[in-house]
Amino acid sequence: MRGLIGKRVLVSGGSSGIGLAAARRFLEEGCRVLVGGLDPAEVDEAVAELRPLGEVTGFAVDVGHEPDATALVEAAVRELGGIDVLANNAGIAWREPFLEITPEHFDRMLAVNLRGMFLVGQAVGRHMVERGGGGVIVNMSSTNGIAGEEDYAHYNASKGGVLLLGKTMAVELGRYGIRVNTLCPGYIRTPLNASIAGAMTDPDFESTYITTRIPLSRAGRPEDVAAAYAFLASEDAAFIHGTELVIDGGQLAVM
Ligand SMILES: NC(=O)c1ccc[n+]([C@@H]2O[C@H](COP(=O)([O-])OP(=O)(O)OC[C@H]3O[C@@H](n4cnc5c(N)ncnc54)[C@H](O)[C@@H]3O)[C@@H](O)[C@H]2O)c1
């Protein structure tokens, strides 16, 4: 991808799954990376795994907690000397029927997936505006931000919010040369989805889901989404702004 060499990249939620693959891809493209994550041990493990690929450090925080989100961005500015690209990736998900969701569960989902994305995005936006010279922010939504999958009302609401958050950020930050776009992956095989599938009583849940809902008949790979992160962060996407990129093997095309 054009224009990525030497870029300073913050990947929130970079210690597992899609974020870990994105961190790997950015390092392979010649970027310097700071990975965030909730669990300090997982962040350390990710950094150790990534280190042979290039310059990488880690910082563990809860992005739903305002002082933590600010600390994450400050750590990236300190370690990397500034932030050129934010992969605003951290998120959680679990299945729960709409009628059973407690206010506490709803709040936790929104706190990490929407509030956390806002907090980290705002802190990085302020840094980029103050420093000048523009930048790129890629927020993580989902196909569940576009259509309402059953048993995910709280998750769907959080990811729908991320889509409009991103569009508004694009409208307000474009004048500073900061490009903002959103990723909408479908079913990607990650530790998150492994735990969701593992909690289902039907042992064939995943294979049935894939064959009935995904026209390409396979789960997505974290690397499929990492490639989209790299593309949107690169100069090849220089005029792509305020929109979303769906990476779902055709799932949203099914009627
Ligand atoms: N896996 C999929 O099918 C899929 C599809 C669409 C969107 N997504 C989104 O992609 C992102 C990554 O998902 P994944 O499947 O790779 O999950 P994952 O569980 O493998 O990784 C999640 C990452 O987010 C971090 N994280 C979780 N809660 C956090 C918190 N409170 N503070 C800071 N970091 C936190 C974790 O430490 C980890 O690094 C999420 O935003 C998820 O909603 C995933």
UniProtKB/TrEMBL annotation:
Oxidoreductase among keywords: yes
Gene3D superfamilies cross-referenced by the UniProt entry: NAD(P)-binding Rossmann-like Domain
Keyword flag Oxidoreductase: yes
Coiled coil: none
Pfam families reported in the protein's UniProt record: adh_short_C2
GO function term, MF aspect, one: oxidoreductase activity, acting on the CH-OH group of donors, NAD or NADP as acceptor
Entry-linked SUPFAM superfamilies: NAD(P)-binding Rossmann-fold domains
NCBIfam families: PRK07231.1
Listed name of the protein: Oxidoreductase
Taxonomic placement: Bacteria, Bacillati, Actinomycetota, Actinomycetes, Kitasatosporales
